[in-house]
Amino acid sequence: MMSPSALPRFFSVISERLLECGDEVRRVFHGRGRCYEGLEQITADWLGQGVLQIAVFKEDEPAFYDALESQAIAFTESEVWKKVGGKTIAIQHRDREGAETETLVGEMPQQINVIENGLSYKLDLGKRQNNGLFLDMRLGRKWVQEHAQGKRVLNLFAYTCGFSVAAVEGGAEKVVNLDMAKSSLSRGRENHQLNEHDLSKVSFLGHELFKSWGKVKKLGPYDLVIIDPPSFQKGSFVLTKDYAKILRRLPELVTEGGDVLACVNAPDVLPSFLTEQMAELAPEFIFESRLENPPEFEDIDTDSALKVLHFRHQAK
User: Fold this and answer.
1) Torsion of Cα atoms, 245 then 248 then 254 then 257, to 10°
2) What is the mean pLDDT of each run of 10 residues along the chain (316 residues)?
């Protein structure tokens, strides 16, 4: 259980970080990294436009919720809240069926356009657990934007095409997005349109990956492949079993000298899972570096946090 007595620390950290956000979407408290005793199951995200979204991941005692609500309301009287133009505070109950959202202060919009690294993304609020943008991948998207110039990019498990938006903004020649959820790809198309991108450079494939290798290969080869799968997707993907099927295919998909960004966001899967499997299944790909995670996602154990590893296809 979390501790009501730890909540002043929660709002103190939020106060410090809100002043650094400007209009950009940003995680402003990350208890899930276990760096704040008594606050391990709570996070807070600043969405810009005056909206602060708190998420609770595990059901707690009524006393904790009472203290959270009263201190959130008191926080709206602070100079920081007024300075950043705060309007809305809501709690998303990630532990409850449907991830219901409770608005404490102001009005919670159903959709909002947020800005990250100067790019716009449309998010859905209060409808489902994931709103359309994973904020811990902020530096990954920035890396892609900085390394996409003139490249053909394959974005696997594309979701709402955040990597694709970053790649096109960075000057990619072509991006192929693949995800079995066509609704997510539709949102990806909207995200590109928000940024006034040329959609002739972007393909959206609403297919299950392991049944679509022929189509994916036909549109290649690629200079950059991004692999950012779910840890588990019922009936289609189990990370510890199925990642290997992708790695085996990389030599026929990636140009010599090309790059692979391989991601894992399962706390119990170590970085060595990727480096060892790559060495075994696609030894032509040399490990270059692990990307840093955003500092606001501090974690007591870096191996449990998001892992984004860069590999390069070694020229023969």
Assistant:
1) 140
2) 96 96 96 97 97 95 96 97 97 83 93 97 84 96 98 97 98 97 96 98 95 94 96 74 95 97 94 96 97 97 96 86
- Domain ranges for the chain, please list them: 4-124, 135-313
11: which residues sit within 8 A by CB, 6+ positions away? 71, 72, 75
Judging by DSSP bridges, how do beta strands 51-56 and 88-93 pair with one another? parallel
Q: For residue 47, give the 3-state DSSP assignment.
A: strand
CATH (residue range 135-313): 3.40.50.150
What does DSSP say about strands 237-238 and 232-233: parallel, antiparallel, or unpaired? antiparallel
Indicate the angle between helix axes 7-21 and 62-75, nearest 10 degrees: 40
The DSSP-derived string for 52-119 is EEEEE-S---HHHHHHHHHHHHHHTTSHHHHHTT--EEEEEETTSTT--EEEEES---SEEEEEETTE
DSSP-derived letter for residue 120 is: E
pLDDT score of 316: 62
Amino acid at 130: N
Instruction: Please check whether residue 112 is in contact with residue 126, taking contact to mean a CB–CB distance below 8 angstroms.
Output: no
Note the Cα 187 to chain centre separation in Å: 15
CATH number corresponding to 4-124 = 3.30.750.80
- What CA–CA distance (Å, rounded) separates 263 from 105? 36
Asked whether the bond before 267 is cis by omega within 30 degrees of 0, the reply is no
Question: The dihedral of CA 237, 242, 245, 251: what is its sign?
Answer: positive
Hunting for tokens 């009501």 — which residue is that? 4
Strands 111-116 and 119-124: antiparallel
